[in-house]
Write a structure and sequence with these properties.
Layout lengths: L1 H16 L6 H27 L5 H25 L10 H11 L9 H16 L4 H45 L5 E3 L2 E3 L5 E3 L10 H15 L5 H25 L3 H8 L2 H25 L1
Antiparallel strand pairs: 1-2, 2-3
Helix pairs in contact: 2-3, 2-6, 3-6, 3-7, 3-10, 4-5, 5-6, 6-7, 6-8, 7-8, 7-10, 8-9, 8-10
Length: 290
């Protein structure tokens, strides 16, 4: 018994002697994880508050968003843990990231993204000579634009954009023989069935998600911005706008078509095509560079 007790004390002594220390890169990864966790919690609360009003499309949208944000976190891990150089933060860097982390203490869930914007601008513009920290700053900015700033901007310009989108869809419906007529933002079919476009249904709402996926893929590849990659982003955003317009047009013939494309298997197909619309041209631009 004394021998067992002695061995236990030696083990405890060795464990106590092991220093528990986070690397500088781990601090930034933990900050990124907390930032993305805020978005997940916010979506779960929204779904819970919607309750019975939530649809299968809401679940598809959550998976689509999770895929984009998960890709951003993987890109951040790849950037900070790359073997190019060890991430080292100065005292000023620690002060900035600590001050930005204080925004998590406020009850309003949008404020952490304001802090991430400040941190992103600082590391991108003040540490441009360190490619790892500059890339981390750019990813934080993309996450903030997607989760907060893009939505704020869209609320300001949503009315004319939705009206213009409804007009284009109606003209396309007439061109393809759907016989769709336009009344404000309401698209009406000859059968009397109609659909109307809300903010969450607009194709422009997914533009910030496209930017986040596009930038994450570029950082994963360790590539730099170029004209071909910007063209890939433009092509991806245009493809997403066209896909969403087509999806809304396909909802117009009947109630059954609406449920298929808004809540059923069509919504799942649209989610996959949306991710592919930005991923495919981006990957092609990366391959062309090589």
């Amino acid at each position: 018994m004394p021998k067992i007790a002695l061995n236990k004390s030696l083990v405890h002594g060795r464990l106590a002697a092991i220093p528990l220390k986070l690397a500088d890169a781990d601090v930034l990864l933990f900050y990124t994880f907390a930032l993305l966790a805020i978005g997940v919690i916010q979506r779960l609360i929204d779904v819970y508050l919607l309750g019975a009003q939530s649809t299968a499309y809401d679940g598809v949208f959550m998976h689509e968003v999770n895929a984009g944000e998960l890709l951003a976190f993987v890109a951040m891990y790849s950037v900070l843990k790359s073997k190019i150089d060890t991430v080292r933060l100065s005292r000023v860097d620690f002060a900035v990231i600590s001050a930005c982390a204080m925004f998590f203490l406020f009850p309003k869930q949008s404020l952490p993204f304001v802090g991430a914007t400040i941190a992103g601008l600082y590391f991108w513009r003040r540490r441009p000579y360190n490619t790892q920290l500059a890339s981390a700053g750019q990813l934080w900015l993309a996450i903030s634009v997607y989760r907060f700033w893009g939505r704020q901007f869209f609320q300001i310009v949503s009315a004319p954009l939705i009206q213009a989108e409804a007009f284009v869809i109606a003209k396309a419906g007439q061109l393809f023989g759907y016989g769709v007529s336009l009344d404000g933002i309401r698209l009406q079919s000859p059968s009397g069935w109609f659909v109307f476009i809300l903010e969450g249904c607009s194709s422009f709402h997914n533009a910030s998600l496209a930017v986040l996926i596009w930038l994450s893929l570029i950082k994963l590849a360790g590539a730099k911005l170029s004209g071909s990659k910007l063209m890939a982003l433009g092509a991806g955003v245009l493809a997403i706008i066209c896909l969403n317009a087509l999806r809304i047009l396909l909802m117009t013939p009947s109630e059954e078509a609406y449920h298929f494309w808004h809540e059923g298997s069509g919504a799942t197909l649209f989610s996959c095509f949306t991710l592919g619309a930005i991923a495919v041209p981006t990957i092609l631009s990366l391959r062309l560079q090589r």
